[in-house]
TrEMBL record, chains A, B:
Keywords: DNA-binding, Transcription, Transcription regulation. It comes from Patiriisocius marinistellae. It comes from the Bacteria. InterPro entries: HTH_HxlR, WH-like_DNA-bd_sf, WH_DNA-bd_sf. Pfam families: HxlR. Residues 7-103 form the HTH hxlR-type domain. PANTHER family: TRANSCRIPTIONAL REGULATOR (PTHR33204:SF29), TRANSCRIPTIONAL REGULATOR, MARR FAMILY (PTHR33204). One of its GO terms (molecular function) is DNA binding. This is MarR family transcriptional regulator.
DNA sequence: GCAATAACTTACTAAAAAGTAATATAGTTA
DNA sequence: TAACTATATTACTTTTTAGTAAGTTATTGC
């Protein structure tokens, strides 16, 4: 079981190579969103997975999380500089899917 | 549980959004490779996962598989046209990782 | 003073992914 | 004739991922 990365691609995949992470990052490209609004943009994600995934993205410094101390709670998510640097990749993945599924 | 794709990115992720698929496709960018050679380029992948993954890629038309009827067996894998169309994305993912991990 | 609210959090269960190790194949070479 | 080879395949177990449903919070509006 070799855990080292064989190439930078491996490193990238360890960061964002999951089912939900690219989707969440993609929707944040249009701007910061409240937790509930962002979650509604991702059909099929469960409450648990949503929280878990954004928290991992936050831990990895790809998104930031702003908590407004009000009741009921208000939380906003947005892309960090590091997250924004994925923009081209995220849009390429989306465009590729768009073209490919038309064939 | 909504299973429909919310955007083309979702479609793309369903095709290649796993731990090993992008890695395998990436190594095939340099040209066709024998099964064993390709597998050795992917540290940490088990025998089972390797076979399983290339077979899925084949099923999805991203790679082709050529079997030479010799003993011991010889099998070559290569990118299909559809697989090749992922080149920019794969290289972007690799380059992103390269730049990011230097910070 | 009680329900409604948004954003979790937790405990528990179920499902999916991955690892391990044994087995198959059949010509070639020692 | 027995071992060696490359490429799987299979059965089984472990690990990881994900889903479900209930509970928490503290203020506001009724």
């Amino acid at each position: 079981m070799n855990k080292e990365n064989s190439c930078p691609l491996n490193y990238t995949m360890n960061l964002i190579g999951t089912k939900w992470k690219p989707l969440i990052l993609f929707h944040l490209l249009e701007g910061d969103l409240r937790s509930g609004v962002l979650q509604k943009k991702i059909p099929g994600i469960s409450n648990k997975m949503f929280t878990q995934t954004v928290r991992e993205l936050e831990k990895d410094g790809l998104v930031f999380r702003t908590v407004f101390p009000v009741v009921p709670p208000k939380v906003e998510y947005g892309l960090s500089k590091r997250g924004e640097s994925l923009e081209d990749i995220l849009r390429s993945l989306d465009t590729w899917g768009l073209n490919d599924c038309q064939d």
